[in-house]
């Protein structure tokens, strides 16, 4: 697949056109950001690890009947994906209290929630991705509410698959963020990436963090944490 002009560059990835208007190449960068880009650093090899983990997870989800934009892994840093129009609503699933949830509601980090919590956020860097309910989404015309309902349903299915997947590797899936898009024929699919950049993942015994919180809060060497995570996921 021939990589052509750059269509979009974000904090962690670059999207390139191909000779097929319905397919793109997703390139994973080593750039690492936190707090809406205020904290920034280049972590050598991070893009390779995230591409590998995202490809692995997308393949797993597709085998379970969950639609994604993923087609195949092309190289260490590149995947081939269907071109989508991203819906500007991020879906977060929480199994344990962490991150902004603990700050908003004063619940101690690591508290297990009675059932998975699904939240939606407006994908808007300038406004720091505010929490939105369906009424906000409808008022702001961010997405069709039927699509939002389907996104939430898919997110809970993803949660069940990934909780089991990580648990088998002695890892707790604390929470994760999903992005969705629509293909040229109107199909709703998972998009972006699913990696330690977009998930909180803790060692089941020690609660050691194996995700981007290591970088956010200066908890150690992010490269080593990601390498450890990848090794565990690749071990059979």
Provide a short characterization of the protein structure.
The protein is α+β, with helices and mostly antiparallel strands and 236 residues long. Helix content is 30%, strand content 34%. The two termini are 31 Å apart.
Q: Please report the total strand number as a whole number.
A: 14
Class computed from helices, strands and strand pairing: alpha+beta
Oligomeric state as shown: single chain
> What percent of residues are in strands?
25-35%
Main beta-sheet strand count, sense and barrel state: 7 strands, antiparallel
Keywords, separated by commas or semicolons:
single chain, 5-stranded antiparallel beta sheet, 6 helices, 7-stranded antiparallel beta sheet, 236 residues, alpha+beta
Describe this structure in words.
Strands 8, 9, 10, 11, 12, 13 and 14 form a seven-stranded antiparallel beta sheet that branches. A five-stranded antiparallel beta sheet has the order 1-2-3-7-6. Strands 4-5 form a two-stranded antiparallel sheet. With 236 residues, the chain is of the alpha+beta class. The chain has helices at 46-63, 100-105, 134-139, 145-167, 213-216, 222-234, and strands at residues 3-9, 13-18, 23-28, 31-34, 39-42, 70-73, 78-82, 85-86, 89-96, 112-122, 131-132, 171-182, 188-191, 199-203. α1 (46-63) packs parallel to α6 (222-234).
């Amino acid at each position: 697949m021939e990589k052509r002009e750059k269509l979009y560059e974000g904090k962690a990835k670059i999207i390139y056109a191909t000779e097929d208007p319905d397919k793109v190449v997703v390139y994973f960068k080593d750039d690492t950001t936190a707090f809406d880009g205020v904290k920034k650093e280049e972590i050598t090899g991070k893009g390779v690890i995230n591409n590998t983990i995202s490809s692995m997870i997308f393949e797993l989800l597709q085998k379970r009947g969950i639609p994604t934009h993923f087609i195949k892994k092309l190289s260490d840093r590149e995947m081939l994906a269907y071109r989508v129009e991203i819906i500007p609503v991020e879906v977060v699933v929480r199994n344990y209290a962490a991150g902004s949830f603990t700050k908003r509601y004063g619940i101690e980090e690591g508290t297990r929630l009675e059932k998975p919590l699904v939240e939606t956020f407006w994908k808007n860097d300038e406004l720091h991705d505010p929490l939105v309910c369906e009424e906000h989404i409808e008022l702001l015309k961010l997405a069709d509410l039927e699509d939002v309902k389907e996104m939430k349903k898919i997110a809970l299915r993803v949660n069940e698959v990934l909780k089991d997947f990580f648990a088998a590797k002695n890892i707790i899936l604390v929470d994760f963020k999903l992005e969705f898009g629509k293909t040229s024929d109107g199909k709703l699919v998972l998009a972006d990436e699913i990696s330690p950049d977009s998930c909180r993942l803790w060692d089941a015994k020690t609660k050691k963090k194996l995700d981007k919180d290591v970088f956010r809060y200066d908890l150690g060497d992010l490269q080593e944490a990601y390498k450890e995570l990848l090794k565990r996921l690749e071990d059979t």
